[in-house]
Amino acid sequence: MKITAIKGMSDILPPESSVWRGVEEKVRQIFDSFGFEEIRTPIVEPTELFVRSVGETSAIVEKEMYTFEDKKGVSLTLRPEGTAPVVRAYIENGLQAKYPVAKLCYFGPMFRYEQPQKGRSRQFFQIGAELLGAESPMADAEMLILLKNIFSGLGIEDVRFEINSLGCAVCRPKYLEAIHGFMKGKEKKFCDDCQKRAKKNPLRILDCKKEPCRELTEAVSTISDFWCEACRKHYREVRGLLLAGHVPFKENTRIVRGLDYYCRTAFEVLCDRLGAQNAVAAGGRYDGLVKDLGGPDIPGVGFAIGMERLTLLAPLIHDSRPTIHEPMFFALLGSEAEQAALSVIQELREKSLRVESAYGGSLKSQLRRADKLKAKWVVILGENEVKKGVAIVKNMHDGKQNEILMGRLVGELSK
Fold first, then answer.
1. Beta-carbon neighbour count of residue 80 at 10 Å?
2. Is the pLDDT of residue 154 over 80?
3. Higher pLDDT, 172 or 277
4. At CA 280, angle to CA 59 and CA 119, rounded to 5?
5. What pLDDT sits at residue 358?
6. Is residue 350's pLDDT more than 90?
7. Does the pLDDT value for residue 256 go beyond 90?
8. HEC profile for the chain?
9. Which is it for strands 37-38 and 102-111: parallel, antiparallel or unpaired?
10. pLDDT band at 322 (very low <50, low <70, confident <90, very high)
11. pLDDT tens readout for residues 158-192
């Protein structure tokens, strides 16, 4: 019986994998220009990390996590998102002592048990960035400017930025009370999930994707009516900095984000070409998260980009694939030829040149392989050439060929 991949978990095959690599390389360059350094966290984390950070009432914790017990009965979870692991590593390794402002980025797979569809998988990949230690609105704006540079750098211009402020521990409780008041007497009109979530975090009803619930919440007051003066000032400054940084944006009071740790600035990056699942990136500020996870009271702001959705924009990012030089092909006939050529091949590869061979076969079959790989130059080496200390170098474009001394081969091919 044939073994297939797990539902919602896909192979990334050539040539798509070259698009992924090209995107990652371009994004790394942009991260470097903003001073972000890469962090790599484990794929498996203690379940408690996500329950405490993402929130018990979040859809992720309630329904979507891949959770299991290890051989000692400890509850572990495949990471469903990247921020909490980065913050855990930041606290555990005392990075706040080394970096007053830590700028960390990551690339890697996340796991959520949800219904697979276009742009949404059970194993999905994210590119993310976290800026820890800065409370200033400038940090919020810089993260959005960083996102803008990433999309522009990849040639993707048809995205739009939407922003909101979720308030803080001072003003948000009053808004939650208002939502409670609004729901009073209407509870049974909401879905079961909203009824449960409203008891612990009523803000979550605004994040419900079911149309009846969305229609009901249209009448809820906007959170901007409840901002304290500090939140109002912070949001006003973020908007001013985005205008100064030439980031076009729309204000959207319905953005609440699906994770409990967000406060103040929240944002999404959308692209209508993706259809219903149109969010390519999202993030926001999470000033209480480090403290909630046992660290010092340090502010933070970050974002994550969905790699699958990014690559669905392939018509625009196709040219971001790394340039791969036409390969040189070594047609080697016999073990003596293979031994004679190996040091030459190694020297060429050390010069970052692409060199291919066929690992045996007739000269005709090897030349067919070279043609399939679109090699311009083929080095032919057999028993006679080894004895003479030469190699035949053939130009596959015009069919011309010349003998070159083995000692001069690296220099000639490097040209």
1. 24
2. yes
3. 172
4. 70
5. 81
6. no
7. no
8. CCCCCCCCCCCCCCCHHHHHHHHHHHHHHHHHHCCCEECCCCCEEEHHHHHHHCCCCCHHHHHHCCEEECCCCCEEEECCCCHHHHHHHHHHCCHHHHCCCEEEEEEEEEECCCCCECCECCEEEEEEEEEECCCCHHHHHHHHHHHHHHHHHCCCCCCEEEEEECCCCCCHHHHHHHHHHHHCCCHHHCCHHHHHHHHHCHHHHHHCCCHHHHHHHCCCCCHHHHCCHHHHHHHHHHHHHHHHCCCCEEECCCCCCCCCCCEEEEEEEECHHHCCCCEEEEEEECCCHHHHCCCCCCCEEEEEEEHHHHHCCHHHHHHHCCCCCCCEEEEECCHHHHHHHHHHHHHHHHCCCCEEECCCCCHHHHHHHHHHCCCCEEEEECHHHHHHCEEEEEECCCCCEEEEEHHHHHHHHHC
9. parallel
10. very low
11. 899 999 999 998 888 888 888 777 777 676 777 87
Query: In the structure, what pLDDT confidence band is assigned to residue 314 with cuts at 50, 70 and 90?
Result: low
**Residue bearing tokens 């040209």:** 415
How many other C-beta atoms lie within 10 A of the C-beta of residue 246?
8
Query: Which amino acid makes up residue 397?
Result: H
Domains in the chain (CATH in brackets) are 16-171+227-320 (3.30.930.10), 328-414 (3.40.50.800)
Residue 46 one-letter amino acid: P
b/e code 176-215 from CB counts within 10 Å (16+ = b): bebbeebbeeeeeebeebbeebbeebbbbbbbbeeeebee
Return the structure tokens found at 339: 């031994």
Q: Residue 149 is encoded by which pair of tokens?
A: 């540079």
pTM: 0.83
From CA 130, how far away is CA 184, in angstroms rounded? 38
